[in-house]
Design goal:
Radius of gyration: 21 Å
Oligomer: single chain
Shape: elongated
Number of domains: 2
Structural class: alpha/beta
Order of helices and strands: EHHHEHHEHEEHEHEHHEH
Largest sheet: 6 strands, parallel
CATH class of the largest domain: Alpha Beta
């Protein structure tokens, strides 16, 4: 598990360093290249005043962007932890390898995976579908939609897979809608990124369904927390206004984006993947209006 860094440099604001970092962000081996330098420039042009442009650069600098390869790396850690957990709880002997367990090569333990969708009507590009294909391709875990599974045999385990879990509300709603018996400990959630809010929510509402993840996000990754740090570190060079005020003003002028302009659950996250952006991220990253073009399409 990796804890994502949140704090900026105490060396103060360095516009050129920020621009170099953003250029590097656009050269990380992206296959479909939704975050091209041209797209970043177009998005940046929508920010008008000096304080708005500073905010845009800082958002890009602290954007948690994961390519397909990086997401696969995070999922590998989460799947390893999940397999190890089930190996320990199952009577299958000692010294078994976690990859053998996931691939069904260990007698007495069979894994299945699927997206967090209870109706089975998901779009091919939806995050759960994307991750399910990755897990099936890389680890040989058979895919079954949750609505196709009503009960499990003694040796069966089901992994609900997705790219991330942030508030935990949507996953909790899915588990409630699935209406399975989770008390036997045969269901687990596997994601690349997890926020501490999601961990707490799921632990409270579904304590028998463990959540495994590759990278951890905390409140320090929020816009509010980062804004405070930017001011303290001198990265914010506009003492007459705060980054939060600037963000709110842009949303008012460029919207309408609704009331939760800092993303679902108002976590204020800056997260994006090669395949899209979660709605828990800042609206200026993914929302579209007559006056605003998002950085990355959902």
């Amino acid at each position: 598990m990796t804890l994502l860094p949140a704090e900026g440099s105490a060396a103060g604001f360095d516009q050129l360093a920020l621009e170099r970092a953003v250029r590097s962000l656009c050269k990380v081996g992206i296959r479909r290249a939704p975050l091209s330098l041209e797209r970043v420039k177009s998005w940046m042009k929508q920010f008008e005043s000096p304080s708005e442009k500073s905010l845009a650069w800082l958002i890009l600098r602290h954007l948690v962007y994961r390519t397909g390869e990086q997401l696969e790396s995070s999922l590998r850690q989460a799947l390893k932890d999940a397999a190890t957990h089930f190996l320990r709880s199952a009577d299958v002997g000692e010294g078994m390898h976690w990859r053998d367990a996931l691939a069904g090569r260990i007698e007495g333990l069979n894994f299945y995976c699927g997206p967090p969708d209870v109706n089975g009507v998901t779009k091919p590009g939806k995050s759960g579908e994307v991750v399910t294909r990755i897990v099936n391709r890389n680890y040989g875990i058979e895919k079954y939609y949750p609505h196709d599974v009503s009960q499990f045999e003694p040796d069966e385990r089901y992994l609900v897979v997705d790219d991330g879990a942030y508030t935990g509300v949507q996953l909790a709603s899915f588990l409630e809608g699935w209406r399975n018996d989770y008390s036997d400990g045969k269901v687990a959630i596997v994601v690349g990124l997890a926020h501490t809010r999601a961990i707490a929510t799921l632990q409270q509402r579904f304590p028998s369904v463990p959540l495994f993840y590759g990278e951890l996000m905390t409140e320090k990754n929020s816009l509010q927390s980062l804004s405070e740090q930017w001011i303290v570190d001198g990265q914010w060079a506009h003492p007459e206004v705060t980054p939060g005020d600037v963000y709110a003003d842009i949303c008012r002028r460029r919207g309408p984006f609704g009331s939760a302009t800092e993303g679902f659950g108002s976590l204020g996250l800056m997260v994006a993947f090669e395949h899209g952006v979660p709605d828990d991220s800042l609206h200026l990253l993914w929302s579209k209006s007559a006056n605003w073009t998002p950085l990355i399409e959902r």
